[in-house]
Amino acid sequence: MYYEIKEPANKEEFKSYYHLRWKLLRAPWKQPEGSEVDDIEDQCFHIMAVDDKNDVIAIARLQFNSPAEAQIRYMAVADPYQKQGIGRELINRLESHATISACKKVVLDAREPAVGFYQKLGYAVIEKSYLLFDEIQHYGMSKTL
Fold first, then answer.
1. Which of 1, 54, 88, 140 has its CA 20 to 30 A from that of 81?
2. CATH code at 51?
3. Do the domain assignments include residue 69?
4. Is 129 helix (H, G, I), strand (E, B) or coil?
């Protein structure tokens, strides 16, 4: 299966990127379009995977909490493309970007079903964190680079 990892480069690509973010991370819980975007998007590093038709199939974002710490947020891979290495490659790209930016640690809040995925990539559970939409348990995780 062909896919390419790249940064959204223009308005149309960002529109597709945010639409998949909403579709996978907000729509199943009846959240309105627009709820997938926050006020620091322009300060973050965004990447996505696209298929051979240039359709967005996975998304992820890296934000900088401090000069030494980055945070992975809004990561999702569309169901038909899961378990094919795309998520792992997104994480590798985000960690490389964090390292180039002199970060020493990456943190994230994983939904309960994704904890094992992140543990395989070297992340450790630090704490049980928040409950999103009153039903999605998240766990704070961390990895030293």
1. 140
2. 3.40.630.30
3. yes
4. strand
Q: Is residue 66 part of a domain?
A: yes
Residue 115 counted as domain residue = no
Q: In the predicted model, what is the mean pLDDT of residues 35-52?
A: 97
Question: 97 is in which domain, residue-wise?
Answer: 4-106
Q: Which residues contact 14 (CB under 8 A, 6 or more apart)?
A: 8, 46
* Mean pLDDT value across residues 102-125: 97
3-state SS of 68-110 is: CEEEEEEEEECHHHCCCCHHHHHHHHHHHHHHHCCCCEEEEEE
Count up the domains in the chain and report the number. 1
Q: Which residue type occupies 18? A: Y
DSSP-assigned letters across all residues of 10-66? SHHHHHHHHHHHHHHHTGGGTPPTTTT--TTGGGSEEEEEE-TT--EEEEEEEEEEE
pLDDT score for 20: 98
This model's pTM is above 0.70: yes
Beta strand 69-77 pairing with 105-111: parallel
